[in-house]
Amino acid sequence: MSFIDDLKFDAAGLIPAVVQDAAGGEVLMVAWMNRQALEQTFAQGRAHYYSRSRKKLWLKGEESGHFQKVLEVRADCDGDVLLLKVKQEGGAACHTGYRSCFHRKVGKKGLVAVRQRKVFDPEKVYKRD
Questions:
Q1: Rounded to 5 degrees, what are φ and ψ at 107?
Q2: Is the pLDDT of residue 93 over 60?
Q3: E-only strand ranges, the chain
Q4: I want to staple 72 with a disulfide (CB 3.0 to 4.6 A). Which of 28, 62, 85, 124 is the partner?
């Protein structure tokens, strides 16, 4: 996929991806992609990312069942950040069980939850290694 060559990956071969709900515009999460994650995303139509902590490629929803159908991918003006417009399947993008990873706001009293209801219980969904 030659268009991938037009993107600017960092020294580790990664590019940040902002993930947005295509219908409502809500920012669901931010993740990292490498070349392989981007190729798999285009090939399958479902979001794939690179986990820096686990040092491996992962399909969003592979454990939780909360997949992301990718409807559009955009690059910023410098080609060093991606915007994925997705249909969030299953209702939750956040591994903590919330719809969005941005379920807290920062204020004088610290981090305050703005979304109290979880879509799923991560203790019941994720396997422990």
A1: -145, -175
A2: yes
A3: 15-21, 27-33, 48-51, 56-59, 68-75, 82-88, 104-107, 110-113
A4: 85
Look up residue 23 and give its two tokens.
């219908």
Q: Alpha-carbon distance 119 to 57, whole Å?
A: 25
The tokens for 67 are 């997949």
pLDDT at residue 127 is higher than 90: no
Sorted by where each begins, the domain ranges of the chain are 2-123
Fold of 2-123: Ubiquitin-like (UB roll) (3.10.20)
Q: How many CA atoms lie within 13 A of 67 on its CB side?
A: 11
**pLDDT at residue 129, as a whole number:** 55
Mean pLDDT of 10-31: 97
Does the CA dihedral 8-46-30-96 come out positive or negative? negative
The pTM of this model reads: 0.90
CA distance 39 to 25: 24
Mean pLDDT over 106-116 rounds to 86
